Amino acid sequence: MAEIHKTAIIEGDVKLAEDVSVGPYSILVGNIEVGEGTEIGSHVRIEGNVTIGKGNKIASFAYIGAPPQDLGFKGEISGIKIGNNNIIREYVTIHRATGENNYTLVGDDNFIMAYAHLAHNVKVGSECIIVNAAQLAGYVEVHDKAFVSGLVGVHQFVRIGGYSIIGGVSRVTQDVLPFMMVVGVPPRVTGINLVGLRRNGFTRERIKIIKEAYKILYRSGLNLSNAVEKLKNELPMNEDIKYILEFMNNSRRGILLKAGENG
């Protein structure tokens, strides 16, 4: 049986796995399902149509399921789906999606630090780190193992590629390619995320090819179409290069192509 503090409020169709814990003064209202081993701290509010997986830790004053801050939202049924083994710290806000039967999505094994905001229709992959007070606007996508530093602002519809890192207090208004390192206002690509790639077990050969891709895209002086052709013609078409090309092809906001002085 779930462990629910006597001061907590549970209303609606709330389904808690047997070993879920709900702390003092927390409020769960709506169509909510929480999986095994999830710990909900004190003063947490979860509302609406929310599914939370197994082994998550949700800290005090987090708010999951608030209506989207979107003038186009008309009260349609939407929700949030959160995977397994995420850490969601104090005062994090995650808003439900705009659009009938749409969802704001969070994958597995993410660390979302205090005061971070995930707006409506955001999609966060798995094993990402979202640092304190990072702000992800509507429809932002953060791919697996990306690192978004503190106080970063990400414009709506922007995509953050996998294994990339965004430096603190940066403003991101265009898509960040996978594996890249970005910092600044305005933002600049200053190189590849070498530390992150090494920590994730990338071989020297893979890193070498990613470096070559960076040089072609950011240091060759070629326009984008010519740089892409050079990329296709001169580099091995491994999974990393395929990912970069596919990511570029699917861009809506455009790709951040300005290189920093240290790049």
Could you explain the architecture of this structure?
The chain is α/β, with parallel strands linked by helices and 263 residues long. It has two domains: 3-139, Hexapeptide repeat proteins (UDP N-Acetylglucosamine Acyltransferase, domain 1); 197-249, Udp N-acetylglucosamine O-acyltransferase, Domain 2 (Up-down Bundle). It has helices at residues 194-199, 204-218, 224-234, 239-249, and strands at residues 3-4, 9-11, 14-16, 21-22, 27-34, 39-40, 45-52, 57-58, 63-66, 79-82, 87-88, 93-95, 103-106, 111-112, 117-118, 123-124, 129-130, 135-136, 141-142, 147-148, 153-154, 159-160, 165-166, 171-172, 180-183, 188-192. The chain has a 15-stranded parallel β-sheet that branches. Strands 1-4-6-8-11-14-17-20-23-25-26 form an eleven-stranded mixed β-sheet. Strand 25 (180-183) and strand 26 (188-192) form a beta hairpin. The longest helix has 15 residues, at 204-218. The mean pLDDT is 98.
Q: Summarize this, please?
A:
The protein has helices at 194-199, 204-218, 224-234, 239-249, and strands spanning 3-4, 9-11, 14-16, 21-22, 27-34, 39-40, 45-52, 57-58, 63-66, 79-82, 87-88, 93-95, 103-106, 111-112, 117-118, 123-124, 129-130, 135-136, 141-142, 147-148, 153-154, 159-160, 165-166, 171-172, 180-183, 188-192. With 263 residues, the protein is α/β, with parallel strands linked by helices. The chain is elongated and about 65 Å long.
